[in-house]
Design brief:
It is a single chain. The chain has four helices and eight strands, in the order ααααββββββββ. By secondary structure, the protein is α+β, with helices and mostly antiparallel strands. The protein is elongated and about 65 Å long.
Length: 149
């Protein structure tokens, strides 16, 4: 967690041009990081890699937190599977997904039965007003869910 937070604080500075980033380093930092050994082309390649890595880290962080922050504008669908045996929902279900997330059924009166399967593929889609719906692959019926872990 600390490494991610540190990278999120440091990486935005790499959005600048490569020569500006490394030219602003003092001699002590250039030596301690080994940057002084790199050619201009290598510095540019490193800056591009860091910029790409920043985007990936932010994307993974958003995905890790999806469902917890309703104000998040980027809400991508989540593709995973329900761990173990699954045959639908009967009112107050808790869905433990293969990606480690745990979601709870919010529509207590809603039931839906399917033939029992193991590790059923599901997609959780964002809907209006911050709602999320879980759908089983191959079926059009969904249930409103809330992330609890």
């Amino acid at each position: 967690m600390k490494k991610t937070a540190t990278l999120l604080l440091i990486l935005p500075f790499f959005a600048l041009k490569a020569e500006n980033i490394f030219d602003k380093m003092d001699d002590k930092d250039a030596v301690s990081t080994g940057i002084y050994k790199l050619s201009d082309d290598e510095k540019e390649a490193l800056a591009k890699w860091l910029k790409h890595s920043e985007k990936e880290i932010i994307k993974k962080e958003r995905q890790r937190n999806v469902g917890f922050d309703p104000s998040t504008r980027e809400r991508d669908a989540i593709y995973s599977y329900v761990e173990g045996e699954f045959n639908g929902w009967q009112g107050d279900e808790v869905f433990k997904l293969g990606n480690g997330q745990v979601w709870k059924q919010m529509d207590n009166g809603t039931t839906f039965y399917i033939p029992k399967r193991t590790n059923a593929e599901v997609v959780i889609k964002p809907k209006s007003m911050g709602a999320w719906y879980l759908y089983v692959a191959g079926y059009n019926k969904g249930v409103r869910v809330k992330r609890i872990e």
